[in-house]
Write a structure and sequence with these properties.
Layout lengths: L1 H13 L27 H8 L6 H9 L5 E3 L5 H14 L5 E4 L19 H15 L4 E5 L12 H21 L3 E6 L8 H10 L7 E4 L7 H15 L5 E4 L24 E2 L5 E3 L24 H9 L2
Parallel strand pairs: 1-2, 2-3, 3-4, 4-5, 5-6, 6-8
Antiparallel strand pairs: 7-8
Helix pairs in contact: 2-3, 3-9, 4-5, 5-6, 7-8
């Protein structure tokens, strides 16, 4: 789809009907007609595979049928996986949201979502292939949730190593994913201070990309996240656009981050809303770890009871 649009633009330029504009200047939002709905998201797959379950229709209607980011981790074929996914979205003229989640020592402090690439060189190869898989297709990318905030238990050498990897990630997305809006993750309103995270964002190369994300996998209300993001911007030097994860913030934050009760789905993906975009970055119904109201469900695994509780706000 993007290729057809590009060819048409070239024809018009040749005919002197429109001025030539560099491809890198294009907005992925303007190049597409809405957000991509992944038919194979974890909620959609669960609903399809459990059609006889009384919860399936509700989960599909309220969650599986909505635009949700797809998270990409350690995969030796990451380039082709990303190319296939973004190609499917482009074939529908839709904008996919991807999460790059493979930093070494991932979730080093909390431990629930541990893993990631085995070395710095492995990560550099992985993120380069990730960016190349997107290429010129329109996309939104969230870079390494929690990576900047989750450094407080690291040694200085580990922090420097991580910042270097994130800087490389921003460079690869800038160079190889030319119609992508990429956002470094900046945590949430109740975690790292705005001044500290702004300093880290600058070290990690935010100048190379579109902006930053807030509230990923958390529950703070959109208004709280806007206030926090504006505060981060006040320390950045050059204000940057930001996106907010609204997947589970319908009832706000209750003091817990790991499968807390009483949370609710937030507004579905849209442009604007006080940020550049409001997105479902965390997949509703996917566990934060074996904790809270899902004490036996590992991080990253879909739990239909978690999903229905988010639908009902219970």
């Amino acid at each position: 789809m993007f290729l057809r649009r590009f060819v048409l633009a070239a024809v018009l330029i040749t005919a002197n009907l429109v001025p030539a504009v560099p491809a890198a200047a294009a907005s992925p939002i303007g190049l597409t007609s809405g957000f991509y709905v992944n038919p194979d998201s974890l909620p959609a797959s669960w609903a399809r595979n459990n059609s006889g379950d009384a919860r399936a229709a509700r989960i599909q209607s309220s969650i599986g049928s909505k635009p949700i980011a797809r998270w990409f981790g350690n995969d030796s074929n990451i380039g082709s996986a990303v190319a296939t996914y973004t190609g499917a979205a482009d074939g529908q003229d839709k904008l996919p949201v991807l999460v790059a989640y493979n930093i070494p020592d991932r979730d080093i402090c909390a431990g629930h979502s541990g893993g990631g690439a085995g070395s710095v060189s492995a990560y550099r190869t992985w993120i380069s292939s990730f960016a190349a898989g997107i290429g010129a297709k329109p996309a939104v990318v969230i870079i390494e949730p929690d990576a900047l905030n989750g450094m407080d238990c690291m040694t200085q050498a580990q922090k420097d190593e991580r910042l270097g990897m994130l800087l490389y990630a921003t460079q690869m997305l800038q160079q190889k994913a030319t119609n992508t809006y990429a956002y470094l993750d900046a945590g949430n309103a109740g975690w790292t201070t705005a001044s500290t995270i702004a300093y880290r964002l600058n070290q990690a190369g935010i100048a190379n990309i579109r902006g930053f994300s807030v509230n990923v996998s958390n529950f703070y209300r959109t208004s709280e996240s806007i206030t926090y993001a504006n505060s981060v911007n006040s320390y950045l030097g050059t204000a940057k656009p930001f996106v907010i994860d609204t997947s589970r913030n319908g009832n706000g934050h209750n003091g817990s981050w790991c499968n807390p009760a009483g949370r609710k789905l937030g507004v579905t993906a849209q442009t604007g809303g006080g940020a550049e975009m409001l997105l479902w970055i965390k997949t509703p119904g996917v566990s934060d770890g074996p904790c809270g109201i899902a004490p036996s469900t590992p991080a990253g695994q879909f739990n239909p009871d978690l999903a229905t509780r988010l639908i009902d706000g219970t």
